[in-house]
UniProtKB/TrEMBL annotation, chain A:
InterPro entries: AAA+_ATPase (IPR003593), ABC_transporter-like_ATP-bd (IPR003439), ABC_transporter-like_CS (IPR017871), ABC_transporter_ATP-binding (IPR050763), P-loop_NTPase (IPR027417). It comes from Thiothrix eikelboomii. This is ABC-2 type transport system ATP-binding protein. It comes from the Bacteria. Pfam families: ABC_tran. Residues 5-236 form the ABC transporter domain. The lineage of its organism: Bacteria, Pseudomonadati, Pseudomonadota, Gammaproteobacteria, Thiotrichales.
From TrEMBL, chain B:
One of its GO terms (cellular component) is ATP-binding cassette (ABC) transporter complex. It is found in: Cell inner membrane; Membrane. GO terms for molecular function: ABC-type transporter activity. InterPro entries: ABC-2_transport_permease, ABC2_TM, ABC2_TM_bact-type, ABC_2_transport. Residues 23-252 form the ABC transmembrane type-2 domain. It comes from the Bacteria. Keywords: Cell membrane, Membrane, Transmembrane, Transmembrane helix, Transport. This is Transport permease protein.
Amino acid sequence: MTAALAITALRKTYDNGFTALKGIDLSVQQGDFYALLGANGAGKSTTIGIISSLVNKTSGTVTIFGYDLDTQREQAKAQLGLVPQEFNFNVFEPVGEILINQGGYYGIERTIATERAEKLLKQLGLWDKRKEQARTLSGGMKRRLMIARALIHEPRLLILDEPTAGVDIEIRRSMWEFLTDLNKSGLTIILTTHYLEEAESLCRNIGIIDQGQLIENTSMKSLLGRLDTETYVFDLVKPIEHIEDLGACHFQLRDPTTLEVSYHKQDFSLNQIFAFLNEQGLHVLSMRNKTNRLEQLFIDLVEGNKA
Amino acid sequence: MNAQQKWTAYYTILIREVLRFSRIWIQTILPPVITTALYFIIFGNLIGPAIGEMHGFSYMEFIVPGLIMMAVITNSYANVVSSFYGSKFQGNIAEMLVSPVPNWIILAGFVSGGIARGMAVGVAVTLVSLIFSKLYIEHLWVMFTIGLLTSTLFSLAGLINGVYAKSFDDISIVPTFVLTPLTYLGGVFYSITMLPEIWQKISLLNPVLYMVNGFRYGVLGIADLPIWISYLIILGFIFILASFSLYLLNRGIGTRT
């Protein structure tokens, strides 16, 4: 099957001599939900800029659904929808017009673009705002407007560059649902985000860019499988003053009713830990992961690449 | 994109541009009308009678074509430079750059928007001139084509300025220090035959002179220079500026990193 996105030996050196990309090879399969992670300045936005024709590459090739961005530019561009990091619509244009105009740039007739705009604005909760100037929208609404704009020409590949930055939790969750539904309907999605929890819950595959190189490209499951240490926080029913470690399983009391437990997955199971707590007469009210697992892995990988 | 899709894309940019300047007509259409009306009152009504006739026409009648042309030039230019730079400043130029619309259609769309405003202001100023003076139309076709071609030329010039502009200051430097002097010295208020010979020759280097000359021929039927030279100069500049604009857009200069 043709890859939704295939990047080969992609390099970018800016006029000031800074090399942002040092030869990236990346392939994203059709129907994938792919996370592209990296610290600020790692090269994510440059990569996305090149794919979306906003940045000129120095060398390398980019194909979108088999269409070469150099030789079949129009066809390649028609496959792609982009939600950039910064708000980049005309803030004085009415919301509905922004979508209809965007459709027009893709050659979609006004009547069809109007129908699609109505559907998207209703789906994203912006229908009531269709006649308002975009500058009157809240931050969350502006993010949703950019998603609607990117979908007006019904692309096959959607790239979202930090789409939930500055969005409240409720709207972020509803955007996750919306994106998950889009992916289920067959749309290939590439997502960059600094919320690693977001990448972990949405994406099946993951690439990590650091210092202009792709240092990881694997499935989310395989990556998370490499993490051998778990840390949980237990909320206890009754307060305690002290607890001994269970061999290599380390306990730490953060306050009399909050117990933190760290262990190696190959040495212990949660069942053993709960059995031990039961023996001590301790009852657990609730539990949660202390840190995001992907976050820990991300830090390990990036630190490892620097070493 | 097939021909129909390209037409849709062009039409979309044009409609967007027309709506943009129409929505803010108090800033785009009204000021040139008021400014030109003041020119008519001061130069035509108050000072004109003291100057007397020029090529057999009253001074008021003589300056009407030049003032219409001045409004067309400045507004065609201003529309494209402000719209294009505004799109860069807000980032929404990316809406077009990520889409499959070819660069020559982006160019045609912006330039058509400039022409639409230039011609709209030209018509408005012409209507205002009727309050002060009788309007002669000796050669309608010449008047229309010179107006249209001049508007095209300065829309292209505005786009090039917009491509290179990096701040709002950059979009006012050319109109203030280049466009206004060229227009004022382009025979709007006088015939170059009134100038000493050396200044007549220097004036021939000013492209605006040929546009005003051509337009005045269309309106009054009088010209300082042969009309075909006006067409040749305007078409030559259009070809050069259109080619350069397309080169800039294709290379992504000022628009892509």
